[in-house]
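Task card 7
Instruction: Convert sequence to structure tokens.
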Amino acid sequence: MTIGQQARIVLVVGMMLMSAVAAPTKVQSQPSGQERDAPSVFDGVLSNIAGTSEISTARLRAALTDSSAIILDARPYDEYAVSHLPGAQAVPAKAGTTPVLYVGDAAEVAKSVPDKTQPLILYCNGLFCGRSERLADGLIKLGYRNVRRYQLGAPGWRALGGVMQVERPALLRLVAQDATSVLIDGTTEVGLKPRLRNAISIPLPEASKAKDDGRLPMTDHNTRIFVVATNGTEARAVAEAIVHDAFHNVTFFGGAITDLPELLEDEEVSRRNHCRFGRYSGYRGRASPSPTIRCRS
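Output:
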């Protein structure tokens, strides 16, 4: 082999090595086809080993919208009352269980859901929570044939933009105990209305403005926020609007504002506050009083 041939071989090998080194750099600068075609986070599941299949956030949302399945909360009632998926049902505890190995009573579910083909979706406290798995096992033993788990649970639901629902006793207790929480009055005002004490008024049409005018806690987007309105539908709409402004700990009350007399201002106090401060109670950007209410000069 001549020196010229050796030189050409070295040159070719060198070019091959340079190409091999450059190739990963080129691939890294461009998203791979697999990355471009990756499924949405809303379609993801944990895929843990269990006797029942999982359901994604997207499918859970669809089930909540069309009411095709019954949603069962596998946690103790006290946790359920503080915050649960909208429309979810609580399951009484199985007798003799401990907090560590808590499990809902499948026999209680059978009393209210006799149809063993009824789709059931179970959830609890996220990735490492075994309560939904244990309840699912109990239901399968009773013959239920369409049981799935939302293993991302309440934390995953919140993280992916879901609102939660609070029960009346828990709402009253938490408003009294948690001084950092924010109570929102979401009713659309027409004249003098029942008002919640120490609440911030954010009707649905004004939800998008509440970040800019100081009505929402901009320094901590994980602040616990409760929304109450004329009814549960209105409260949920306001809560979802607040979630869409990147607040992650929002719950709504499914009843009416009049179901909470303990939190209402009396009529005279409400009138005085309205005349003095205008329609926005609880923040400084107040508007003028409503012309439908007579205020003494």
